[in-house]
Amino acid sequence: MTRGLVQRGASWHLKRRVPLRYASIEPRTEVWKSLKTDSRTVAALKAEKVWLELIEGWEAKLTGKSEEAADRFRAAQ
After folding, report:
1. What's the pLDDT band for 70 if we cut at 50, 70, 90?
2. DSSP structural state of residue 29
3. N or C terminus of the chain with fewer C-beta within 10 Å?
4. Please, which residues have CB within 8 angstroms of residue 19's CB and are 6 or more apart in sequence?
5. Inter-residue contact 12 to 5 (CB < 8 Å)
């Protein structure tokens, strides 16, 4: 199984724990993001990109770059 992939109904979602490093800026302990596909193969490809965008957004927030963080979180959507 690909890490963090969960099927809910017909759609695949990314489900991952938020790393402790980001606890000061992210109130959630876990993130769920719809990957907007019913294909497991497509979901696996999308999940990696979405997770990287989330990490980059949290990193930008940690360094005080809130505008860049907002752009990254939008890209993760």
Report:
1. confident
2. S
3. N
4. 55, 58
5. yes
Q: Give CA–CA dist 7/25, Å, rounded.
A: 28
Which amino acid is it at 10?
A: A
pTM: predicted TM-score of the whole model, two decimal places: 0.83
The secondary structure of 37-66 as a DSSP string is -S-HHHHHHHHHHHHHHHHHHHHHHHTT-H
SS3 27: coil
Phi-psi region of 9 (alpha: psi -120 to 50; beta: other; left: phi over 0): left
Give the distance between the most distant pair of CA atoms in the chain: 38
